[in-house]
Amino acid sequence: MTKHITIFLWAALLLGLLSCGQNPDYERSAQQLAGRLVPGHEKDFIFPLVPAENDYFELKQHGDQIEIQGNNGVSMARGLNHYLRHYCHASVSWCGNNLSGIPDTLPRIASPLRIEASQPFRYYLNYCTYSYSMAFWGWEEWEQEIDRMALQGINLPLMAVNSQYAVWQNTLKRLGYTDDEIFAFLPGAGYEAWWLMGNLEGFGGPVSQAFIDRQTDLQKKMLRRMRELGMQPVFQGFYGMVPNSLKEKFPQAHILEQGEWCTYQRPAFLDPNDPLFDSIADIYYDEQKRLFGDALYFAGDPFHEGGQTEGIDVKAAATKILQAMRRISPKAVWILQGWQHNPMPSLMEGLKQGDAIILDLMACERPQWGGIPSSMFYKPEGHMYHNWIWCALPNFGGKTGLHGKMSSYASGPVFAKHHPLGKNLCGIGAAPEGIGTIPVVYDMVYDMAWRNDSLNVTDWLQEYTHYRYGEADSACNRAWEILARTIYECHNEAGGPVESYICARPADTIKHVSAWGNAEIFYDPDQVVTAWETMYASRNKFRNSDTYRYDLVDLTRQVLSDYLKALHRQAVAAFQHHDAPRFTRLSARILDIIRDDDRLLSTRKEFYVGTWIGEAEKAGTNPQEKAQFVANAKRQITTWTDYDSSLHDYAHKEWGGLMRDLYLPRWEAWVNYKLALLKGEPAREPDYFGLEKAWVTSDKTYDEGPSGDSVAIIEELYKQYIGEIRQTYKNI
Description:
Blueprint: H1 3-19, H2 26-37, E1 45-46, E2 56-62, E3 65-70, H3 73-86, E4 113-116, E5 121-124, H4 127-132, H5 139-152, E6 156-157, H6 164-174, H7 179-185, H8 192-196, H9 209-229, E7 234-236, E8 241-242, H10 246-249, E9 255-256, E10 260-261, E11 264-265, E12 268-270, H11 275-292, E13 297-299, H12 314-328, E14 333-338, H13 345-349, E15 356-360, E16 387-392, H14 406-417, E17 425-430, H15 439-448, H16 457-469, H17 474-485, H18 525-536, H19 546-576, H20 580-601, H21 609-619, H22 623-636, H23 658-678, H24 688-697, H25 710-731
Parallel strand pairs: 1-3, 5-6, 5-17, 7-13, 13-14, 14-15, 15-16, 16-17
Antiparallel strand pairs: 2-3, 2-4, 8-12, 9-12, 10-11
Helix pairs in contact: 2-3, 3-5, 5-9, 6-11, 11-12, 14-15, 16-17, 17-18, 18-19, 18-25, 19-20, 19-25, 20-23, 20-25, 21-22, 22-24, 23-24
């Protein structure tokens, strides 16, 4: 990175911290984080603040205390994470924590260790994450998530979503809207992401005033904690998205209909070159600042995944959008999503160097930055003269499934940094559509933000398993080595896990579960079985390890899901050969796997549909809203919308409860349909949408919570399936 870019970014970050009107006590914030993470040990750490141009942390022994020095709270938190991982062999993740083995007397640091960040920015989140994973979170969940962000060293999180209900409500009131008109524009919980990206309006609502107030208070708490640690939250900018009804209020304004997005009517777009744009922008930013304080970074993407540009001077519009941001924040920086054709070249040409940072959202597999011509999203001009962030996007829709491209994480940012088209690289980040899965990917990605060279995947994984499970283990190391070169080394641009047949609408041929997904296995499933067998061998050693139990459940789920695909192919062949006995036996086994998988997944909250539905119910502020949010939660992971569309099963999940109550009935319907045909009986093809809609609208509750012993059930399933699976794959 050139020197002038480094200076600019550092100055911008410093300015952003000062603009918040606070002087954060980073030492205190880091101390409190240590107290939340390792209660009883907070006094064993000291966190001296030492200003520096680049983010860094330094570990050293200070008498009987561990000194973690840094230039801000985030750097100190990253230092704490490094100490816990590599000295205490402890870790924190969405998918289990390994903290119980931290000794009463903390390990000493033999010699000082100083590590600097390789990039000034460590970015995190995607608009979709807020809806697919965080839609119904309260402060308890967010406090833990912000702690995890800090531990990874994240300093540029997207915080655009929660706050927008109140901002838009107040803005539209000042434009003469009635309450009913306002609530018709605001979406329901679980659909905010696509509203703010200009894809839909109003769907899933209306929300209550109490919920708006709840979200506003929650956002204030989130922002306070982030700023205390030294993060710079990215606010939502005003880029021209307005209600379609604005055309009636201001008929003379240049307001364009934006057509449809996946059958939804998009919000309208107010041409930034129209005088009304500045008026609304000033109201919007005034309300945002009044509620949430100052900001330096603003996100927002005109024409995301489509939209109409005819009649708009896009280059001039870009300039106007930035100018509106800078009237409220003179050094504002526009954060743009690099996705498909966005941002278009004409928009980038309306901005000067330093005006924007482009998130190369899927640089891990579909990079835009220009150095990999074979990429699906290749742009020969790359990001032109703009600063940009290398991002991993390992998950679409929050789908369950093992997935990654470790070779890309391990070397991709370094390759980009030294490439002529990548010279304006200023950060590393992750932009998942959903979280709560595959924690190994995020640890590797954010480790790359604190080193200047590529990493050796095998060596890194040995360190990972050590702090993940608390103890070095050769069997687990071997299992992860196998996974790293198979399922965690995706060689196509599928983007996200190979989809499970269990979650698909049954058919003779299944290419995908969701319209844009892929259910075809690119790796050798027998090798994944070997990894399962190898990790399983350590079950007695790690039986009480929460992290090991999670990983073994996840790997078992993957093995069973892959095996069902082989059984399905055999069952379809039996049907085509009119072999009713064989079809009966194989289809019964398919149903057995779904039942067994459901029983296993129901042992953990991370894989239990009741966790998601419970969050939705808790977020509601009255009985009617609770029911509405539960319906939103159930709809989002199944039909997505109220009618049968291409969006069905986009955010499918292999979750306990959902397996037995939706996916099993779908597969039972298919089996019964096929058996009827084999018997020559009249049969109608199953109405899968009807089954899905019935589950969404049912009053089925999941109050009992996860239950059962994961390892005991896996022992049972291993004995039942291992020989059968091996023989099946041998005969293929």
